Amino acid sequence: MSSLPSLDSSTATHQQTEELARHVAQGLNRSPKTLSSMYFYDDEGSRLFQQIMALPEYYPTRTEYQLLSTHSTAIADALRAADDTPFYLIELGAGDGLKTKILLRYLLTAGIDFSYVPVDISPAAIEGLEASLRVELPNLRVEPVITDYVSALQLMATKPGRKAVLFLGSNIGNFFPDERLDFLRQLAQPLSPDDRLLIGFDLQKDPRLIRAAYDDAQGVTAAFNLNLLTRLNRELGAEFDLAHWRHYTDYDPLAGVVRSFLVSTRAQTVPIAALDASFDFAAWEIIHTENSYKFTATQIQNLAKEAGFQVSNFFTDAQEYFADVILTPTT
User: Fold this and answer.
1) What Pfam families does UniProt report for this protein, alphabetically (predicted)?
2) Are residues 15 and 7 in contact, defined by beta-carbon separation less than 8 angstroms?
3) How far, rounded to the nearest angstrom, does the alpha carbon of residue 89 sit from its chain's CA centroid?
4) How far is 4 from 274, CA to CA, in rounded Å?
5) Which residues in the chain show pLDDT less than 50?
């Protein structure tokens, strides 16, 4: 296994703290106040999300896992090059690789010639994934890239052979509609008509089922959301008193979106030392932390067309809760 050089850990941590501070300064000066869900995932947030994925209410992870297990042969055949020439399997935001390992194992067992390219901005995430792959899949060729998604695809575009790009989970649903279209167009730009893009989409279904997935009975999701404030206290010297904040979420079936919030239960002023500033909150004022859009097959078809793709394969589970969709660039 080979690994690209990464930033010194202290330098990377300093840069990440500066980026967080800028984001918080901008987000808490908006109306309504907003913080991005991307900052949920410190060490504790990642631990809590692992618990969320195991909850009975949280269907997305286990449904996509089952989907990939059921359709691994067909999905792999759709992603690999038709002439069996070597190709690159590029994953955007690989995480712990739990679901991806289903495809990796199949491709290795079938003797297919490919290299796995996990992409993440976090050196720690890449290092953790590499360590697990060395143990579980020692014969796998891994070429990790530590950068943002678009830069990684531009880099990979210079290499010969097919690029099969994975964007698993329901991460595409966290984008606002305009941002989502923009993001897919940026992904399309460095890809050729011979390349493929597989994206996971959470499908529209019973609104009660969707809502419960983001507000479980055990309160793990609430702890996950509130941990964002704990992170700001630790990393930015903020003084959020968690006793006076609540997690709230709801699903709007008209817009097809789950919206999550942190709610101030009283009028309060919160100093943030790293910003040398304080922020006022009215009683019951919210901080918007996450959107999670759900899709129909028609919406996916239309989105693909607008972004410069066409749907070549549409895989779903028996209950049609989730879809892994393979897109082909049209130009």
Assistant:
1) Methyltransf_33 (PF10017)
2) yes
3) 17
4) 32
5) 1-9
> Which residues does residue 146 pair with via DSSP β-bridges, in sequence order?
120
Handedness of CA 64, 69, 71, 75 (dihedral sign): positive
Which backbone phi and psi does 152 adopt, to 5 degrees? -65, -45
Residues of the chain within CATH 3.40.50.150 domain(s) are: 59-206+295-329
User: Which 8-state DSSP code applies to residue 276?
Assistant: T
Measure the CA–CA gap between 107 and 18, rounded to whole angstroms: 41
The CATH number of domain 59-206+295-329 is 1.20.1440.20: no
If we measure between CA atoms, which residue out of 231, 267, 229, 264 comes closest to residue 245? 264
Tally DSSP H helices, then E strands, for the chain.
10, 13
3 state SS of 85: coil
CA distance 39 to 220: 17
pLDDT in tens, 163-210: 999 999 999 999 999 999 999 999 999 999 999 999 999 999 999 999
Cβ within 8 Å of residue 167, ≥6 positions away: 91, 92, 93, 187, 197, 198, 199, 200
Measured distance CA(150)–CA(92) in Å, rounded = 9
